[in-house]
Amino acid sequence: MDLYPEYTGTILEVVLHSPRPLDLEEMRRELSKQGLGISDPLGFNDSYAIAVTREARARYGLRTISDLARHPDLRLGLTHEFLGRPDGWPGLVRHYGLDMRHVLGIQHELAYTALAGGRIDATDIYTTDAQIERLGLTVLEDDRGFFPRYDAVWLYRLDLAAREPRAIQAMGLLTGRIDESRMVRANARVVLERGDVQGVGGSRSWPR
To answer: In angstroms, what CA-CA distances link 63 with 50, 69, 122?
Structure first.
C-alpha cells in the first residue's frame, strides 16, 4: 500500500502513540522517521461533537458546549461508547464543569429517532454525520477545545514522491477542497439516499 486517507487524531494515537497533541509539522517530522509522509488537510474535521435539536437551540439559546452548564435539565441521549471513553462524556464533564440531570445511554441509531420524536434534546455525534442536515441539528461549538481534531489527510510512503510524483500532485489538488458541510451532504446522499459512493463524490466517514 502506498497511501490511504486517515485522520490526524488517529495518526497521533495509533501510529505515533503520542502522549501530547502535535501540530502538522511536528507530526510530519515524527512520521518521516518511519518513512511516512502526511498531506495537508483535505478541509474537514470529523471529530466528536454534541448536537442539539432545532427546538432546544431556540428555547435555551444554545450555541456552545459551555451553554449546557446553564441548563442542567436538558435531556441527553449519549452512545454507550461515548459514555465510557475518557475522551468522551467523563472528560467532557470535567472539562466543562457539567452537571446534567438527565443522561441516557442509547444506541446511535436510536438517538436519531429520539431526537426526531422530541424525547431527547441532544446527543453525541461526529461533525460530518449524515443526519445533521436531515434532522436540522446544531453542532455546538467546542468553545473550550476539549475534543481533539480529526482532520482528514493522506498518509503515504515517502518514497512515493520519487516513484510516482503524479500521485503527490493529485493529493495536493484536494487540499482544503472538502469542508464539513460538503462532507455532511455527501454522507447523507450515501447513507440516507442510498446513493453510489463514486457518484456523490464522497463516502461515509472513515472508521477510526
So the answer is: 11, 12, 12
Q: Three-state DSSP class for 177?
A: coil
The predicted model scores a pTM of 0.76
78-87: long-range pairs with CB below 8 Å, 24+: 78/103, 78/104, 78/105, 78/106, 78/111, 78/123, 78/124, 79/105, 79/106, 79/107, 79/108, 79/111, 79/123, 79/124, 80/105, 80/106, 80/107, 82/48, 82/124, 87/48, 87/147, 87/148
C-alpha cell recorded at residue 198 = 463514486
Cα(205)–Cα(192) distance, integer angstroms: 13
Tell me which amino acid residue 168 is: I
Render pLDDT for 116-157 as a digit per residue (tens, 0 to 9).
999 999 999 999 998 898 899 999 999 999 998 999 999 999
